[in-house]
Write a structure and sequence with these properties.
Elements: H1 3-47, H2 65-69, E1 72-78, E2 81-85, E3 88-91, E4 95-101, E5 109-110, E6 140-145, E7 149-154, E8 164-169, H3 186-191, H4 195-201, E9 203-204
Parallel strand pairs: 1-4, 3-8
Antiparallel strand pairs: 1-2, 3-9, 4-6, 5-7, 7-8
Length: about 210
Amino acid sequence: MNENQSSRRRFVVSVGTAALVGLAGCGAQQGESAQTSTQQTTTQTETTTPTEAADTPTTTQKSSKSDADGPVVEMKTDNEGSYFDPKGLVVEPGTTVRFVNISGTHSTAAYHPDNDDGPLRIPDGADPWKSKLFTDTDAVFEHTFETEGVYDFYCAPHEMLGMVGRIVVGEPQGGPATESPTDIPPAAQESLPAVETIVSEQRVSGP
């Protein structure tokens, strides 16, 4: 082999070695890039959080003003007369009932010896109530019924005309108002709805 052939072989070997080194370097760089990309993807996935459930609107709000304020018994005078509406109602113990003056001049009072020496027609031990005389439209009187049983009530200026009402709280319990109402004016006796009717219908409209 002459000198030219020997030099040529050394040149080919050198170029081949350099090429292999270069390929090895590229492979290493590509491996590192792939590993770095995978780490970045993993990190991004771990730090991404879903929208909090608290952002979802709730559905537990009161649906209407009347729901928030409790049941209403209206006090009225119109072409049907003077009356409570409803005149019969069922509520649960602890319920606050709102008596609202719609038209005319009215009051609301429990049948109780403390009120005008009237008969006892609310449960034994229950708190009686008596409002002032209302002349203003939308005037309100509230009473909370805590004791189970039947409560009879009246409007002072219109009791003789039959403006009376009855509220059943929980179960009737067999109290004074479950007995025949012979101790109140005849028009009031006729206007009071039967306890059984109130319990069955839950609400009895006036007059």
